[in-house]
Amino acid sequence: EITPTEINYAGNYGSTQIRVPISKTVQRPGGVQYSGTANGQSIEVDILYAQCNDGMSDRRYQHSVSPTANGTTYKGCGGAILPPVTLNGTQWRITHIDSSALTAEQSAKASVRFDKDRIGVSVGCNQMSGGYKAENHNLTVSTMISTMMGCPAPLDSYERSISALFGEAVHMRYTDKGGLELLGKGSRKLVLQQVI
Description:
- The protein has helices at residues 104-109, 155-166; strands at 6-11, 16-21, 24-28, 31-38, 41-48, 52-53, 60-69, 72-73, 76-82, 91-97, 100-101, 111-115, 118-122, 127-135, 138-141, 145-146, 170-174, 179-183, 189-195.
- By secondary structure, it is mostly beta strands.
- An eight-stranded antiparallel beta barrel has the order 10-12-13-14-15-17-18-19. Strands 3, 4, 5, 6, 7, 8 and 9 form a seven-stranded antiparallel beta sheet that branches.
- A hairpin with a 2-residue loop joins β14 (127-135) and β15 (138-141).
- The relative contact order is 0.12.
């Protein structure tokens, strides 16, 4: 992490911790380099303003980042998480429905999945699905079909909210933390976090 005044580096899965004040900032064509030294520890971070894929999760990031910590250079990605190139094949965990934040237990069972031209949704009770088309930050969902189990509260109201949302024009807005907001009329919305 680079703040306005310091570099905070955690490497080797957290076993290497370096925190130093920024002593030098160099703007370069297509990037920037930060460096600092304190208490016998040094770090230099080269940031290239080019998209980067971390190779493990297939997430795309805004920048390619190369920190050199105490003489050892590492390669990685940083900056904002970029939206997926396509929704096809992605799975998302639902964190909010309208103005309601789901509990961790509810969110673990609530998901949206996009496969080819189909969308599948569940909040932990019925399975809902339909066709979809995503274009220019707009999502159009064809008539949703659903299994017909009676669901306890609040799952029943969550399902009604989702059906209402997908029954109208939906605007898609990606967040820089790997999230996706599906926005309908008024306060209708789903807030999703991509599952990697």
